[in-house]
Design a protein that fits this description.
Blueprint (H helix, E strand, L loop, with lengths): L9 E5 L4 E5 L7 E4 L2 E2 L8 E10 L7 H6 L18 E5 L5 E3 L10 E3 L3 E2 L2 H10 L5 E5 L3 E6 L2 E6 L3 H10 L9 H11 L8 H10 L5 E5 L4
Parallel strand pairs: 1-10, 4-8, 7-9
Antiparallel strand pairs: 1-2, 2-3, 5-6, 5-10, 6-7, 11-12, 12-13
């Protein structure tokens, strides 16, 4: 995976990619884990916050909105196998939001939560131990990632938020329109080598949204 275009510190969560990058080891490569994120109307916020506290064996308290939608929900769910927060939770500075485990691992890699950020049960234990309280968290919305690796330029395209919602809710895969903003971003990163861009490959990557890096330019300068 290419890294998101964000400061390489603390935690960076890229919503379209449904993945977190944890920059916790200086200049070494970040730890990275897949996520489940909020569904339409209950989306995980974009912006900056921090980890304010951590809890092993968290207690889940459904919000008033959740209990209104499902009156059978209890006011409090104690730690245990029925707890949707799983075994560990890291609470964000945004009220009611957390990074946590899950008792439904099939929700990872999908937009199914009520805005919170879910991790596989085996991942949250490792993540919980590595991430300190107070670390900065940046949540970004970057369906396109473009980066040079040595003398090769790569493009990694994921479904954007609207496409993800339609795929999750209706099973539809929309044809993606190649926007001026997409073109400008790719040309900007290509810099002085923009004339070397392989536009057929770029259009294919944007159409397929495969989520893996595709080489779109190469130069041979020293």
């Amino acid at each position: 995976n290419l890294l998101p275009d964000a400061p390489r510190e603390g935690l960076v969560i890229n919503l379209p990619e449904m993945r977190v990058y944890a920059y916790l080891n200086g200049d070494e490569a970040p730890y990275t884990y897949p996520l489940g994120i909020g569904r339409e109307g209950l989306s995980t916020p974009i912006g900056e916050t921090s980890i304010t506290r951590k809890k092993e064996g968290p207690t889940w308290r459904p919000t008033p909105r959740m209990r209104k939608e499902d009156p059978e929900l209890p006011a409090v769910v104690p730690p245990g196998p029925e707890n949707p927060l799983g075994t560990h939770a890291l609470y964000l500075g945004w009220p009611t939001y957390a990074i946590h485990g899950t008792n439904k691992p099939y929700g990872i890699g999908r937009r199914v939560s009520s805005g919170c950020i879910r991790m596989y049960p085996e991942h949250i234990v490792d993540f919980f131990e590595k991430v300190p309280v107070g670390v900065k968290v940046r949540v970004v919305d970057q369906p396109l990632k473009v980066a040079w690796i040595d003398n090769e330029l790569y493009l990694e395209a994921h479904p954007d938020m609207e496409q993800s919602i339609k795929m999750e809710e209706f099973g539809e895969v929309e044809q993606y329109e190649f926007s001026d903003a997409d073109m400008e971003r790719i040309i900007d990163v290509a810099g002085k080598y923009h004339e070397l861009l392989n536009w057929p490959r770029i259009r294919m990557a944007l159409r397929e949204r495969s989520g893996y890096p595709i080489r779109i330019a190469r130069h041979f300068d020293d």
